What does this fold into?
Amino acid sequence: IKPFRNAVTIYLLLPIRDFYLWLPWSVVIGVPAALGWYLGGWRLTWVPVLLFGFLMVSGFWTPLMLTIYLVTSCAILCTLIGIPLGIWAAKNVAASRVILTLCDLLQTFPSFIYLIPVIMLFQTSDVSNVLAMLCYATVPAVRYTYLGLMRVPSTVVDAAIACGATPRQRLFRVELPLAFPEILLGINQTIMMALAMVAITALIGSRDLGQEIYKALPGADTGRGLLAGLGIAFIGIVADRLISAWAKKRKAALGLV
It folds into this structure.
């Protein structure tokens, strides 16, 4: 396990972390602002500008970037794992029983329980943080993909079959595009659950906003803890507004609203 942990840390996580820390503030704020303008107009543009700008002038920029690094790494892995599992569950009744039961099991455990096995196997490292968040946050990606595919109208599927579409063509050209808005909501919830784990993974040595909260507790440093908590909330607000606007835009394009 140690060579695997070292390889993932050195060749995958550390380059991603260094890339996020290298990014200038103008890019970190400007890209979400541009996406906000494209997806929702000027009102959405100002959300990342004001929220991330506040954290920058408050002196929490580095913990903010470390938090975004962990959450985005987790969200990418959750998406790569959760969407295929959701597709498999939607297409196979036997697999759906096993996968959905496993999802129920993962949601039943308290969030801090996931720290125990990752510490035992990977000690305190970024790999442990990402894996703990991964176990907790993959469930929405699986469930929303499954529900999105199951809610595709049968008449649309029958029309695709009547036109001679193969199962692969139906999946990628008919079903997944129609389920895409709901899949986006699943990714949104995955990000929210990953953010919820930020304060928990601080217990195993992360250096993000969760660690700032943890440092503020012994000295009752209310200001520091409040700003760190607001930082986590701000990341969630920006992600939620952008992804929800994207899902709404896709629904309008598909004639679902």
